[in-house]
Design brief:
seven-stranded mixed sheet; four-stranded antiparallel sheet; 11 strands; 32% helix; alpha/beta; 12 helices; binds zinc ion; 296 residues
Length: 296
């Protein structure tokens, strides 16, 4: 690949993965082998998009169909409601009390529902039009893209969250710049994204073919994420690691070459905790969380 990196402008790519990728839910594989490219400068990894029109893909709900999860609001809640308190814990309730809060790529808006009782204003940014009317009825301001948020709100938002979205966008630098434009001086942005240094990616070819997927155009290590945040103009970027799966999940991947979720094989809690803590300590866990701050 010779085109400049959309994050740092460098043109020194190397192929860090060559093989089939995931096209939706488990088992949907790309018919051809594809390359994932690692930027020799900023370290971000890029999978050139296979979708013809990325904006239309997310606006129309085709993305949820690819996941075999559909576009019904109630189904979105069923799948994601229980994940929301953890997202709040990452920021802390007090950071959001009485504040204006935006969720960028909010899906059907369960996180905003959670914080609405104590936030002063909730701003939903979500391309999927199937969720818009329901979110309006629940009292959120609704926009399709961050660029659509009116200039009168620019620099007025205290806190934004964007969980598991950065990896989907075409241009992560512009994406973070667009969010930063909305934030007040001293404002914060909480993000999450899969960790490209995930131990399983390196150690299981089957897992790698599951990890790299059509809808994730960008993959970040902690270092690449910090670099991106700095280029987007944030003053600081505090990265933490989390690992959401137990030792059983890793063992079943090795044995059966498929995801099983947690608890399929019985390992005691001490062993599972040691596995998780080891991966987190080494920066080889499956997920990255980061708090980015705008200069005061
Ligand atoms: Zn780069």
């Amino acid at each position: 690949m010779t085109s400049p990196c959309l994050i740092c402008g460098a043109t020194s790519w190397r192929s860090c993965y060559h093989g089939s990728i995931r096209m939706g839910s488990f088992g949907k594989k790309s018919p051809a082998d594809l390359d994932v490219w690692e930027c020799g400068d900023c370290g971000a990894r890029y999978l050139p998009p296979v979708m013809a029109d990325i904006e239309a893909y997310y606006k129309s709900g085709e993305y949820r169909d690819d996941l075999s999860q559909g576009n019904a609001v109630d189904e979105y809640f069923r799948l994601t409601d229980n994940d929301q308190p953890h997202k709040l814990d990452l920021i802390g309730m007090h950071q959001l009390r009485g504040k204006s809060v935006a969720d960028i790529g909010c899906g059907a808006g369960p996180f905003l529902d959670l914080v609405k009782g104590f936030a002063s204003r909730t701003i939903a940014v979500e391309p999927n039009q199937c969720y818009h009317e329901s979110m309006r009825q629940r009292g959120h301001d609704v926009y399709t893209w961050a660029q659509d948020v009116p200039a009168s709100l620019a620099g007025q938002i205290d806190a934004a969250v964007s969980y598991s979205v950065l990896e989907h966008v075409e241009n992560p630098l512009r994406f973070l710049q667009d969010i930063r434009r909305l934030l007040k001086p001293g404002g914060i942005l909480a993000i999450s994204t899969p960790n490209a240094d995930d131990w399983m990616v390196e150690n299981s070819a089957d897992y790698a073919a599951f990890f790299y997927r059509k809808v994730h155009l960008w993959y970040f290590t902690a270092m690449a994420l910090r670099r991106l945040a700095a280029l987007a103009g944030f003053e600081s970027c505090q990265v933490t690691f989390d690992h959401r799966f137990d030792l059983s999940n890793a063992m079943v991947w090795m044995r059966d070459k498929r995801p099983s979720g947690n608890g399929r094989l019985s390992f005691d809690t001490t062993l599972n905790a040691a596995w998780r803590e080891h991966l987190i300590r080494e920066g080889r866990s499956d997920y990255l969380y980061a708090i980015l701050k705008v200069a005061p």
